Q: What sequence folds into this?
């Protein structure tokens, strides 16, 4: 009995079976894969088999007991990779891609929150390996010391390849163009499993790096034609009203619009921001249908969207993988046209998200990173400096800037996992039982208080009155992993449709000398910010490659494009590829026109990707006055500054 079951081949099949079961359990219990039909259900179950056969199968070529050791090693590596995805998924509701891995100095978006993401029951995911090791020790002495006949492992590999072909065939039948449309990683994991996803991702990464080499100057023409055609003429009443004015751009970390006017325990969560929204003195215009569009690059993607009007990449953060590309970013344009000083304020290390490289390409003159701030223990939480000391300490630096300036103030405390000390929490947590959702309101309140203080200081300094002040949310703070708690918060079940609607983030702007319009309902998004600002200061935005359109323009395009190819219009929403009516939230059959817009959205994303992958802006000259950015002029960090002086 022992001989047969625990022969080398028996051991191999036990390993395959255990890895198969484990992978399946993880797919079901850890990932939110949105299974919609029987084929998908079957494939989810079936897909680990081919990977287990193929990867573990290679071990069978080894001689004698070594085959067993190789099986254990390969199994452990695969398990580790899967588990890393589990941890990453808990934070980002997404899978690890190679570009995110090369960001390990940032830990992707995990950072200090990793301890919150591992659980005791995770030990269960190592049980199969322990069983294998025990089995190996117990049975190895009965194994033959010779190498197996090649025929056997070859047969195993052939079986694996066959299983994979069946898998891919069924997947393609259910979802044509699965591999060519790279928008959504969820689909690939659902149909082909996370091991095949890793291979797919590696090939994708390789392909994107060859694209730069293969690109030439003619490639930009198609993009230029498209964006010039999409361009919306400025609103003549607003063109140039903010010429030469300081611009203070305030980044609200992880802030979603549902917080505005939300009441918890009978009190407003963000009374100060609410007061700006309902501004009686008519300073601010608030866009209540403004959406974030970020992908894996989170904050970095928001920065890219706002300062370049390009879409983020489907994998990784362009800030990191395309950090040395040529850009024609808003700061550089402001500098060249109206001699702005460009500065970023952020209480984190300058290299996070590769900012200290990409900011040079953007033409950022000064980057006040953590080296400029008092990073004492009591001033720091989570990723970095707390928002209150951040704004306080930024004031003198802001005042020191030569005017006009474009200053980007990036907050940080309201970030997953929303840590706050009891003394600083001025509102009680929510009571959903989901700790990060419950604390989300407390750090939002803290941010609101910090902002209020900053406004007071701005007014005192004299900077408030004559500056453009723009406030925006960078991305969601509550991912779809928290749908159950969000149901309690919003009082509604979080369907795909509802989840998409929740991707609204605040956008508000005060323009000196121009009355605020109160709340406007125009559908708009982060990619629209750059052309809007260019027109406000009186620069012709048409010269530049931009995918957004001026939000104040009559010709503004009211469709909001998401990275995964979904989109939102004032009438309907496309979520996970399905069309929904905005009024009812019910599924609808798309009309021809709707399908055409969907095609257009996909085309637009593809063009934007081309710009980034091909580094196409190196071939583009916006106008005869344009000077390519000289990156050698910039260096960041307090010490670098001292060297200069
Ligand atoms: C870190 C901060 C957070 O500097 O911008 O980035 P995120 O995790 O939101 O991408
Ligand atoms: Mn962020």
A:
């Amino acid at each position: 009995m022992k001989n047969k079951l625990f022969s080398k081949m028996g051991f191999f099949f036990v390993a395959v079976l255990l890895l198969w079961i484990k992978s399946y359990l993880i797919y079901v219990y850890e990932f939110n894969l949105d299974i919609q039909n029987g084929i998908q259900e079957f494939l989810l179950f079936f897909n680990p088999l081919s990977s287990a056969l193929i990867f573990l199968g290679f071990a069978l070529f080894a001689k004698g007991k070594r085959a067993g050791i190789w099986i254990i090693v390969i199994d452990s590596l695969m398990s580790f990779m899967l588990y890393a995805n589990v941890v990453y998924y808990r934070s980002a509701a997404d899978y690890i891609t190679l570009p995110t891995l090369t960001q390990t100095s940032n830990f992707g978006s995990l950072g200090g929150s990793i301890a919150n993401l591992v659980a005791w029951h995770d030990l269960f995911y190592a049980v199969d390996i322990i069983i294998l090791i025990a089995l190996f020790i117990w049975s190895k002495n009965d194994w033959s010391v010779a190498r197996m006949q090649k025929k056997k492992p070859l047969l195993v590999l052939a079986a694996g390849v066959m299983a994979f072909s069946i898998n891919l065939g069924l997947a393609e039948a259910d979802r044509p163009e699965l591999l060519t449309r790279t928008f959504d990683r969820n689909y690939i994991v659902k149909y082909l499993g996370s091991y095949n996803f890793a291979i797919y991702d590696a090939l994708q990464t390789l392909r994107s790096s060859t694209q730069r080499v293969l690109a030439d100057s003619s490639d930009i023409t198609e993009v230029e034609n498209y964006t010039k055609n999409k361009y919306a003429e400025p609103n003549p009443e607003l063109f140039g009203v903010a010429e030469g004015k300081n611009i203070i751009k305030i980044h609200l970390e992880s802030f979603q619009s549902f917080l505005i006017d939300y009441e918890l325990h009978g009190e407003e969560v963000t009374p100060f921001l609410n007061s700006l929204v309902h501004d009686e003195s008519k300073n601010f215009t608030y866009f209540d249908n403004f959406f974030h569009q970020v992908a894996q690059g989170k904050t970095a993607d928001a920065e890219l969207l706002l300062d370049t009007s390009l879409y983020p990449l489907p994998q990784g953060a362009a800030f990191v993988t395309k950090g040395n590309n040529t850009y024609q970013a808003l700061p550089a344009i402001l500098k060249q046209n109206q001699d702005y000083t460009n500065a970023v304020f952020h209480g984190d290390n300058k290299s996070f998200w590769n900012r200290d490289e990409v900011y040079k390409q953007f033409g950022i003159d000064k980057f006040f990173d953590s080296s400029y701030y008092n990073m004492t223990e009591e001033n720091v939480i989570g990723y970095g400096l707390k928002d209150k000391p951040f704004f306080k300490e930024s004031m003198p630096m802001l005042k020191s800037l030569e005017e006009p300036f474009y200053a980007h103030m990036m907050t940080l405390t309201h970030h997953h996992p929303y840590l706050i000390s009891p003394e600083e929490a001025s509102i009680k947590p929510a009571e959903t039982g989901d700790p990060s959702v419950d604390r989300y309101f407390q750090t939002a309140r803290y941010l609101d208080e910090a902002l209020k203080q900053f406004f007071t200081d701005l007014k005192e300094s004299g900077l408030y009155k004559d500056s453009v002040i723009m406030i925006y949310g960078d991305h969601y703070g509550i991912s779809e992993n928290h749908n159950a708690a969000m149901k309690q918060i919003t009082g509604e079940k979080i369907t795909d449709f509802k989840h998409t609607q929740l991707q609204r983030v605040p956008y508000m702007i005060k323009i000196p000398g121009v009355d605020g319009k109160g709340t406007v309902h125009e559908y708009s998004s982060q990619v629209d910010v750059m052309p809007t600002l260019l027109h406000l200061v009186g620069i012709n935005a048409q010269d530049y490659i931009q995918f957004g359109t001026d939000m104040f323009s009559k010709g503004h395009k009211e469709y909001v494009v998401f990275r995964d190819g979904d989109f939102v219009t004032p009438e309907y929403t496309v979520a996970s590829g399905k069309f929904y009516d905005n009024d009812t939230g019910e599924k609808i059959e798309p009309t021809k026109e709707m399908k055409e817009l969907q095609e257009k959205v996909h085309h637009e994303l593809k063009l934007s990707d081309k710009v980034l992958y091909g580094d196409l802006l190196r071939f583009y000259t916006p106008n005869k006055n344009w000077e390519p950015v000289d990156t050698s002029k910039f260096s960041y960090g307090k010490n670098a500054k001292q060297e200069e002086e």
The pocket of (2R)-2,3-dihydroxypropyl phosphate (ligand 1) is lined by residues 109, 298-299, 348, 352, 383, 412, 415 (CB under 6 Å).
